[in-house]
Amino acid sequence: MFLLFIALTGLLLLLPLLGIFFPYWWQDLTMCVATIRLGVRCLVCFIRRPAFTMLDMFLEKVRRHPKKPLLLFGDQVFTYQDIDRLSSKTARVLQGSLGLTEGDSVAVFLMNIPAYVWVWLGLAKIGCAMACLNYNIRSQSLLYSLVSCGTKVLLTSPDLKAAIEEILPSLQEKRIRVYYLSAESPTQGVEALQGQIESASAEPLPVDLRAKVSEKSTSVYIYTSGTTGLPKAAIITQRKLFLVAGIFGICGVTPKDVIYTTLPLYHSAALLIGIGGCLEVGATCVLRPKFSVSQFWDDCRRYHVTVIQYVGEVMRYLCNAPKRENERNHNVRLALGNGMRVEVWKEFLQRFGPVCICEFYGATEGNSGFVNYTGKIGSVGRDNPFLKKLAPYELIKYDVERDEPVRDERGYCIRVPTGEAGLLVTKITKAAPFSGYVGDQKKTEKKILRDVLKKGDLYFNSGDLLSIDHEGFVYFQDRVGDTFRWKGENVATTEVETTLAAMKFIQEVNVYGVPVPGHEGKIGMAAIRLTDSMAFEGEALYTHTKDYLPSYAIPRFVRLQDAMEITGTFKQCKGRLVKEGFDPTIIKDRLFFLDESKKCYVPMSHEMYKAILDKKLKL
């Protein structure tokens, strides 16, 4: 007893010291325990035979509270029981009339509508995988996406009639059947399924239809929304779906919460975390067809929203909207998402009140990630020593010019020191597998780094540069393809964009590097959209960049655009801008050049362009 007393006394004396030298140890430990609990739950669920999947979690919620709203869409309310019955009806038609069986994949080409959810659950009830097509893609990209996932059935709606009819002959040639989820079909050769679904039985389907489903079975294919190249279909296994959906629970979302999702359902954030998270905790989801700045807070008040999902650009749009007297009048307590810049983060909290921001980092196809559970502004998470033991990762030196990791004389990668940006690589293990992409093994292999720290080890190449500060906070720096090299230095585009965005006359900014004949590397250029009713201030921008950026990072060219080209998930596109460079004969937008002699950004002329090519104008 005396020894126990001494031990407890020592522990009580130790706690204040831990708080001084390791101020975040308790939060780190708490997050570690929550993550371990999620992992153990996942293990227990998939040890069972048959496996206890996300579908079974949903069915469990249906039994517990059948009349609770699961989806709110405009004036429509769909309870857990409603979605269960609709998904069963859909499953019977897909299995009976269409002949789909366990292991088949079905492509879904739909806008943000409630049917997306019950089609997903209906496919799960017969053991089929769902390929989530970006409703913005067309022509060859759409056809490639369909073929790459090996689907023989495409479910869509008349809203996307033009996109379907454009490639319908090719689909018929490849024997891919197309169906509209509508009462009638406006396209010859495409059958409408709504009548069959409405008349089908809503009784539960036999479990043996999905008897072979395991943790390694594919649940969903999510296509990467990169800004260049053809889409790649990332394999989301049942196990990964379970763990990703668990992010809501880790971040404190409860069954009482109402989640507001405006992101596209073909994206992992909305489908896996948003809808999947609601199914996991038993919450309610407000689904909107598309993001609207003007309706955002009105919707939050109308539906009594407590949790919002975001990507960085969504938050920036909200902060750029005109101020309203009632913009703090809402019940939102938590915002969960990724890609928010520091200045937007601060502005959002100042304008809209003390909302807990839970920023996370993770690639759709990745095998690990970070969650900011401390509220540190600008951070994507912590270098948690407990979690690092469970899912090892490293930040390694990366040669931007050669587009490859730097290796030492033994051929191994080199860890970066504290505070320096490095390529994030996460170890591929049995507990943290990398499932890769469907179709092309070369694309999967390209994301794997071998012999990173020792012979034979395997790491997932995130393609992102991150840094860790002296307090252990992790920060996103840039994407490898976006970072460029000028005058022997690496230029992080996100850092330059953040600096330029502080200027009041700049509404949006997209920074990239363009090649210049006769020069090594790429030189900085910024595409800018001006704030409404404001003019470009070349002198002020010159002074600002000189004050806040190193000389090699200052953009030498500025391009004014009326609108920025973005992906469906609000990522800025750089490919076309890089290709067009700073040639005034190609670019119809207004161009400016940084003139050191005038200490100002001045209009770019054809004479200036020729002088740069002839090396008569110094860069």
UniProtKB/TrEMBL annotation:
Q: Which PROSITE patterns match?
A: AMP_BINDING
What's in the GO CC field? endoplasmic reticulum membrane; plasma membrane
Could you tell me the membrane topology recorded for this protein? Multi-pass membrane protein
Enzyme Commission number, as recorded: 6.2.1.3
Q: Where are the transmembrane segments?
A: 115-135, 241-259
Reactions catalysed, as given in the entry: tetracosanoate + ATP + CoA = tetracosanoyl-CoA + AMP + diphosphate; a long-chain fatty acid + ATP + CoA = a long-chain fatty acyl-CoA + AMP + diphosphate; a very long-chain fatty acid + ATP + CoA = a very long-chain fatty acyl-CoA + AMP + diphosphate
The record's subcellular locations are:
Cell membrane
Question: Which Pfam families does the UniProt record give?
Answer: AMP-binding (PF00501), AMP-binding_C (PF13193)
Q: Per its UniProt entry, what is the enzyme's top EC class, as one word? A: ligase
Q: Which InterPro entries match?
A: AMP-bd_C (IPR025110), AMP-bd_C_sf (IPR045851), AMP-binding_CS (IPR020845), AMP-dep_synth/lig_dom (IPR000873), ANL_N_sf (IPR042099)
Q: Provide the GO biological process annotations.
A: bile acid metabolic process; long-chain fatty acid import into cell
- What's the main place this protein lives? membrane
Where in this chain does the record put each AMP-binding enzyme C-terminal domain? 495-571
Quote one Gene Ontology molecular function term. Answer: long-chain fatty acid-CoA ligase activity
Sequence similarity: Belongs to the ATP-dependent AMP-binding enzyme family.
| Full protein name | long-chain-fatty-acid--CoA ligase
